[in-house]
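Hey Z.,

So I finally got round to the alpha-D-glucopyranuronic acid thing we talked about over coffee. Here's the setup:
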Amino acid sequence: EAATVHQAENATISQGVVESNHVGYTGTGFVNYDNLIGSYVEFTVDATAAETTPLTFRFANGTTADRPMAITVNGTPLRTVSFPGTGAWTSWREVSADAPLNAGANTIRATATTANGGPNLDALTVGTPSGPDWSVS
Ligand code: GCU
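And the result:
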């Protein structure tokens, strides 16, 4: 199945703001998580069939401290994913985690686990990251 890109600025945001002051994002901006434990971004994504598929988060972290986030799928903890420093707030990279999705709608939430909050989050790609609809760099 083709990968689908979901922009963080269009997702449900708790304790974060949409900004566009650091270039290199896709879409119209990114989410700047508030610097506290528990801030989150939640995406609703559709899957045509139940399947385990990669979730790929595009982010920037201009500090030297990791900003790990807890990932839940449909309310069930999946794992904690590391969002390490990328060298600059304008340097974006991707990290992936495989997740089991249900057929139909799924909620994917990425919650900050440290007092630094999350990284700046640009987008979530669901599905194998290849093909013309996955061309961020
Ligand atoms: C800076 C940066 C923000 C970032 C923030 C942070 O203020 O400009 O984009 O979100 O640091 O540490 O979270």
